[in-house]
Design goal:
The chain is of the alpha/beta class. The protein has 13 helices and five strands. The radius of gyration is 31 Å and the shape is elongated.
Length: 356
């Protein structure tokens, strides 16, 4: 196994020789006569360097300049840096610690004391590095498990939604097209509005949760779902209550992972709300409506327009876009509508893909 490395950055050759002799049995010793050369060697060997010995006063780039660069490249947290100086005053020491140095070693050197202090700090950094690596691996494993669980739950509930669609004689795979439209719409909205924090994993969770938007239709009779004529007021009340029943059903299910659980409940209950407060079941308005539900509400409205239903013909993509922009399908968040308009070519492709 190759030795770890230490680097001595000092313009005085004698100091480099003394420290090199002290550590050569346990480490491969690198040397640099100024800060610029030393920084270059640190970057080239950053994964193998166990410690840096850094003089303050040097030509081209002094020790504090090197420390500043190590902070910029986030290396100061990974590699212990020992400042070596004849000026071990309180001001110098305080400034060194502010820049991230782990210790200040005064000249002339006592190599026995230096070796003990340095070895302890190297072991500490190695343990920390291993701990950080373990945490990253555990987090990656948990993320994979969360994604697998999200996909499994989404797939299961998606099949339930397909059953609902078959009952209402709607075009097949509406739930899955809504998911793809939601994903594309989320991505465009995230580009336009980074302040909402729609990172990739959040977008994926919202898209997966969107497949259950109509789960409340389980509680609606086939007679209403398949009626080609306009629904009467009593039938409309049943339709308007369906989202709240769907959310109640999801609330009773234990063990749904986050954030899928929260998004699925928000979407199931509120995807039929409208920005002007004229939606249902709660009459929410503007940003009282969860963002996930706003996005899915618009995604579903588009897919419904371009799909044939028992009560309507399928509109063309251009007609559907025009109807949404004109407010014919209810009011949506203006920022979201602008993202919808920019994403329209992608949505047309999704809508036109042959159903599987």
């Amino acid at each position: 196994m190759a030795k770890k490395k230490v680097i001595v950055i000092d313009d005085v050759e004698l100091n480099r020789v003394i420290l090199g002799e002290a550590f050569k049995n346990d480490f491969e010793v690198l040397e640099a006569e100024n800060g610029s050369v030393g920084l270059k060697k640190i970057k080239e060997n950053q994964n193998d360097i166990a410690a840096v010995f850094l003089d303050i006063i040097m030509p081209e780039m002094d020790g504090f300049g090197v420390l500043q660069e190590l902070n910029i490249y986030s290396l100061i947290q990974k590699i212990p840096v020992f400042l070596i100086t004849t000026d071990a005053t309180s001001g110098v020491i305080e400034r060194a610690y502010d820049y991230g140095a782990v210790d200040v070693i005064p000249k002339p050197f006592n190599t026995m004391i230096i070796k003990r202090r340095v070895q302890n700090m190297i072991e500490f950094f190695e343990a920390k590095r291993q701990s950080d690596s373990d945490i990253v691996q555990i987090d990656q494993m948990l993320q994979m498990q969360r994604e697998d669980l999200n996909n499994a739950v989404g797939s299961l509930i998606g099949h339930i939604c397909e059953v609902i669609e078959s009952r209402s004689k709607e075009e097949s795979r509406h739930a899955y097209r809504t998911r793809e439209i939601t994903r594309a719409l989320c991505a465009e909205f995230a580009l336009e509005h980074p302040e909402y924090g729609l990172k990739d994993h959040i977008i994926e969770s919202i898209a997966n949760a969107s497949v259950i938007h109509d789960i409340g239709k389980i509680f609606v009779s086939d007679k209403i779902l398949t009626k080609p004529q306009k629904l009467d007021s009593e039938e409309m009340e049943i339709i308007r209550a369906a989202p709240s029943y769907g959310a109640k059903l999801l609330n009773s299910v234990q063990g749904i992972p986050e954030p899928f659980a929260t998004f699925s409940k928000e979407i199931a209950r509120s995807h039929m709300e409208r920005f002007d407060g004229k939606g249902y079941p709660d009459g929410l308005k503007e940003n009282q409506i969860p963002l996930s539900a706003q996005i899915v509400g618009l995604a579903e409205a588009y897919d419904v327009l371009v799909s044939k239903r028992v009560y309507k013909k399928a509109y063309s993509h251009d007609e559907a876009v025009k109807m949404i922009l004109n407010g014919d399908c209810g009011a949506f968040n203006p920022d979201l509508v602008r993202a919808f308009e920019k994403a329209a070519p992608k949505l047309e492709k999704i809508a036109s893909e042959k159903q599987q």
